[in-house]
Amino acid sequence: MEIPIYQVDAFTDQPFRGNPAGVCVLETAAEPAWMQAVAAEMNLSETAFLYREDAGFRLRWFTPTVEVDLCGHATLASAHVLWEAGYLWPQEPAQFYTRSGLLTARPVEGEVELNFPAVVSEPVEAPTELVEALGVTPRYVGRNKFDYLVEVASASDVRGLRPDHARLRTLPVRGVMVTAVADDDRFDFVSRFFAPGSGIDEDPVTGSAHCCLTPYWSGKLGKQAMTAFQASARGGVVRVTLMGDRVLLAGHAVTVMRGVLV
Fold this sequence. Notes:
By secondary structure, the chain is an alpha+beta fold.
């Protein structure tokens, strides 16, 4: 039996930039151990697995080492594949049943727009291990149910980070987002995301992190709609809009590989 699998670069309109995701389209549910093995074989920050269920698709996400509760770029990649490969009509909204509830996607002016839950951070005292691992002086440290959020003084500080991933791996969180106001007029804020405890030293573009970054920067900048840049080596652009307790995340996607699991 051959199972379709795709590799899609998300939050970019150029191949080999943004965040690559695997997308595996199944006929029915698969064993978690098998999905984890496929994700390890793909060795991407996340591989998505989906199959038809009710009026939409059941969707699960795996890093090379663990299953995660929320992932933006692999959801964007999944919606892109469903439209491009003909699983859905080109303008038909996609519905995903996930461990974070119902998530939806729709095509908007050539981009994929995701509707995700906002994940607000609360201020906390900065753990010594976190500060020392990052090697910067935080302006703010917050935490939500997934990650730490750290604001630093400048975008150049964000770009210049060389964190100690071994020390970050000891923190009891999925990951750490580091952010600052942008120094480029095209963007409102910049960020990077480190998740060595989840098997990813640095994630190139992290949609789910923007579920926290959006309400944070909306409050600071007084804007509902913003454009964000994730300043990893690959880089990626995320257009974000705060809508009450939801966040709209929009970006492009490019298919770079199509194949089958045999």
